[in-house]
Amino acid sequence: MPLALLALAIGAFGIGTTEFVIMGLLPEVAGDFGVSIPTAGFLVTGYALGVMFGAPLMTVLGTKVSRKRMLMLLMGLFIVGNLISAVAPTFSVMLIGRVVASLAHGAFFGIGSVVAADLVAPDKKAGAIAMMFTGLTVANVVGVPLGTLIGQSAGWRVTFTVVAALGVLGLAGIAKLVPDMPRQEGVRLRHELAAFKNVQVLLAMAMTVLGFGGVFAAITYIAPMMTHVAGYADGSVTWLLVLFGLGMVGGNLLGGRFADRALMPMLYVSLGSLAVVLALFTVTAHNKIAAAVTITLIGALGFATVPPLQKRVLDQAHGAPTLASAVNIGAFNLGNALSAWLGGVVIAAGMGYTAPNWVGAVLAAAALLLAVLSAALERRADPVAPTDPAAAGSEQNQPVKQRAAVHN
Fold first, then answer.
1. Could you say which DSSP state residue 226 is in?
2. Helix (H, G, I), strand (E, B), or coil: what is residue 193?
3. Which residues neighbour 295 within 8 Å (Cβ) at sequence distance 6 or greater?
4. DSSP state letters, 41-58
C-alpha cells in the first residue's frame, strides 16, 4: 500500500478522535462552563449537523483546486476548529469550534476516498478506502479512551490541544506523501451534481443511512442497556466500547478486502448478518458475556459495510465522484441521527432499553432489501456490462494513466 494512505489514515484518526471523545468528556465540559449535560450535548449534535452540511459545501468550494491542496486546507480547518475548542472562554465559542472542525470531516473522507482509490490498481480500490477508514476505527479503540483519560486527569482542554497536534501531523503527512493529483479536466460542479440523477447512487446512499443507522440504534443507548439490563458496572461501559472499536477495525479491513472481490455479495452478507445479530441482541443483552460478544460483532458487521458502500458510490458516480463521495459521508451521520432519535422514541414509549435493537434490526434489513433491489436494477439496465472485456480493459487502463501522470 502507498505511504500516502498512511497520511490519510493519520488525518482520519484525528477526525475520529475529536468526533467521539467529546461524549466521554461532557460532564467535565458542562461543569467548567456551568451548563447542563443536555445543553453540553449540543456539542455532539452541532458536530453531526456540521458534517452533514459541511460535506457538500466544502466539496463544492474545493472544485477549483487540486484534491491534495483541498485535503491540506481541510486539515488546516480541522486544526483551527480544535484549537478554538481548546481555548474557548465560553460554551458558545466552544460550540463554534466544534462546528468549524466538523466542516472538514465529510469532505476529508469524501475526497480522501477518491484519492485513496486513485492511488492503487482497480482491484484494490475498496482495500485502499478501508485503509484510510482504519484511522477512524482505530480512533475508537485508542484515541477516544486515551483522549478521555487525558481529559479527566489533565483537563479536557489538553485533549483538544493534543487532537489539534494530530491534525498538524496529518497535514504534514499529506503535504509530504500524497501526490499532487491534478483536477480532472472537463469536470465541473454540474458534472458532480449530475451524479445525483443516478438512481444507483441514491440507492447506495440510502443503504448507508439505513445500514449504519442499524448500528447506532443500538450503540447510542449501550450505556443504560448494559448497566440496567446486562448488569455491568458504570465503569465497564468504556471497555465494552473498546470491544466495539476492535470489531470496527476488523470489520472495516475485512469489508475492504472482500469488497474488491465481490462487492454486492459482501453487502448481502454484512447487512443480513447485522440484522440478525441486532435482533438477537434483545436476548443476549441479558447476559454479560453474550452481550460483550454481540457488541463486538455489531462493530465488525456494521463497519464491514463502509468500504463497499463508499466504493459503490464511487463506481456509480462514474467520472464525477467527489461530491457524491462526500455526501455519502454525510449519509453516515444522518443514519446516526435518525437511529438515535428512533431509539429514543421506543424507549420513551416504555418498550425498554433493548427496544432500540429491534429498530436497528429493521433498519439493517431495509438496507439489505435496497441492496437486492439495486443489484436487480443494475442487471436489468446493463446485463452484459460485467462480462464486456473491452469495457473491463478500458476501466483497468484508466488508473494506470492517472498514476503515470502523477509520477511524470
1. I
2. helix
3. 219, 222, 240, 243, 244, 247
4. THHHHHHHHHHHHHHHHH
Would the pLDDT of 397 be above 90? no
Sequence spans of domains, the chain = 1-183, 188-408
Let me know: does 111 contact 70? Beta carbons within 8 Å: yes
pLDDT of residue 3: 86
What is the average pLDDT across 11-37? 86
Interatomic CA distance for residues 302 and 299, integer angstroms:
5
The answer to whether 1-183 and 188-408 have equal CATH topology is yes
The mean pLDDT value for 259-277 works out to 92
> Which of 263-297 are b and which e, b meaning 16 or more Cβ less than 10 Å from the residue's Cβ?
beebbebbbbbbbebbbebbebbeeeeebbebbbb
- Amino acid 225: pLDDT: 87
Q: By 3-state DSSP, what share of the chain in percent is helix, strand and coil, each rounded to 5?
A: 85, 0, 15
List the grid coordinates of 246: 476492535
Residues 294-318, mean pLDDT to the nearest whole number: 88
Cβ-Cβ contacts under 8 Å for 270 (sequence gap 6 or more): 251, 255, 301, 304, 305, 308
- Cα dihedral 209/215/217/222 (nearest 10): -150
Q: Is-contact 204 374, C-beta < 8 A?
A: yes
pLDDT for res 301 = 95
Neighbouring CB atoms inside 10 A of 224's CB total: 12
d(CA 242, CA 4): 27
pLDDT confidence of residue 189: 62
Say which residue the cell 484549537 belongs to. 83
All three cell numbers of 97 = 469550534
pTM of the entire structure? 0.74
Q: List the end-to-end C-alpha distance of the chain, in Å, as a whole number.
A: 20
Fold of 1-183: Growth Hormone; Chain: A; (1.20.1250)
CATH code for the domain defined by 188-408? 1.20.1250.20
Tell me the three cell numbers of residue 80. Answer: 483551527
CB 325 within 8 A of CB 132: no
* DSSP strands (E only) in 157-295: none
CB 307 within 8 A of CB 256: yes
